[in-house]
Amino acid sequence: MTILDGKKVSNDIKDEIAAEVKKMQDKGEKVPHLAAIIVGNDGASLTYVGSKVKACERVGFESTLVQMSNTTSEIELLEKIKELNENPEIDGFIVQLPLPKQINEQKVLLAVNPDKDVDGFHPTNFGKMALDMSTFIPATPFGILELLDRYGVETKGKHTVVIGRSHIVGRPMSILMGRKGFPGNSTVTLTHSHTKNITQITSQADIIISALGVPNFLKAEMVKDDVVVIDVGITRVIDESRPRGYKIVGDVDFANVSKKASYITPVPGGVGPMTIAMLLKNTLLAREQHKL
Ligand code: GUN
Fold first, then answer.
1. Ligand 1, atom 2: nearest CA belongs to which residue?
2. Is 164 annotated as a binding residue?
3. Which residues contact 34 (CB under 8 A, 6 or more apart)?
4. What is the number of the ligand 1 atom nearest to the C-alpha of 98?
5. pLDDT for 291
6. Could you say which residues of the chain have pLDDT below 50?
7. Cα–Cα dist 285/251, whole Å
8. Does 50 appear as a known binding residue?
9. Going by fewer Cβ within 10 Å, which terminus of the chain is more open, N or C?
């Protein structure tokens, strides 16, 4: 069994990006600049956005954090997005999800200039991805592809089962694993809350990508020997013994599933750090495209 070490691989990627930034600096060029908008004070979202800003510092990017209150109106947020769209200093930006109820997420995603949409959530970019055109691939699916690639995990002709159909992970992942190329060329089953007999499906899978958000959902009895398991779950579970008062738990019963798996991602230290590294990669791509 091989652990797909997202912490290590993400550090390698950050080193590669830092080397690119160093070259830009040596040539006197502008370095990539990522901005993040966060609306409200959800603890998990603040942590993720904080990690994104810290990662920018680590590779030598400029970063801007825009914090808006929980009572921000849709119009106020759209104005801020317009400002970032028009600011030539900003190469790419993200609007951290989820958003408060008074804001329509679809309107927000549509307002982001696709050339600065380093999350790859705008319909233009999502459509390009589905059509195998060059574009920003959403960071979490992009990170999973990169892990499979760097560990040389065979995907061609395999049966990939994706659990969860979110716009951020499950849906794009199902498209990417089925597309021509590597990683890809697999036969994909997309499962969700209305799927019947899920164990029957997961037990036929060569590769399982779980993005459900239900702790310890995937049990050893649900998988076959030598399965490849990618755990995207990151649920906070109360744990008084930890300094923060909680621990992060994945969708997979790691202790038992890892005994049957050929490759498996841990939580934490698997997909999570890869997401941040790929957001940086998309921002570097955005900077390079803005130079053209
Ligand atoms: N919320 C959870 N994951 C993500 C992500 O990748 N991007 C944004 N913008 N919000 C998120």
1. 97
2. yes
3. 52, 56, 61, 62, 63, 64, 90, 91, 92, 93, 94, 118, 279, 280, 283
4. 1
5. 85
6. none
7. 32
8. no
9. C
Domain spanning 28-113: which CATH class is it, in words? alpha beta
Q: Is the CB of 140 under 6 A from ligand 1?
A: yes
CA angle 225, 230, 232 (to 5 degrees): 145
- Is 139-272 assigned to CATH 3.40.605.10? no
Please name the helix (run of DSSP H) or strand (run of DSSP E) that holds residue 264, with its range, or none.
Answer: strand 263-264
Q: For residue 94, how far is its CA from the centre of ligand 1 (angstroms)?
A: 8
For ligand 1, whether the C-beta of 282 sits within 6 Å is: no
Q: What is the pLDDT of residue 292?
A: 77
Closest CA to 145 of 207, 196, 203: 207
> Rounded distance, CA 89 to CA 124, Å?
23
Distances (CA, A) of 19 to 100, 107, 124, 149: 38, 37, 31, 21
**In ligand 1, which atom is closest to the CA atom of 275?**
6
- Is 26 annotated as catalytic? no
Whether residue 184 is annotated as binding a ligand: the answer is: no
Please state whether beta strands 246-249 and 33-39 pair in parallel, antiparallel, or not at all (unpaired). Answer: unpaired
Q: How far is CA 143 from CA 50, 140, 167, 169, 277, in A?
A: 19, 5, 15, 11, 8
Task: Round to whole Å and give the CA distance between 198 and 159.
Answer: 14
pLDDT, position 234: 96
Identity of the residue numbered 208? I
Q: What is the pTM of this model?
A: 0.98
* Fold matches, 28-113 and 139-272: yes
Mutate which of 42, 47, 48, 275 for ligand 1? The one with the most ligand atoms within 8 Å of its CB, which is: 48
- Establish whether 96 is a catalytic residue: yes
Q: Which of 5, 80, 91, 96 is catalytic?
A: 96
Residue 23 token pair: 């070259």
Query: What are the residue boundaries of the structural domains of the chain, listed by start?
Result: 28-113, 139-272
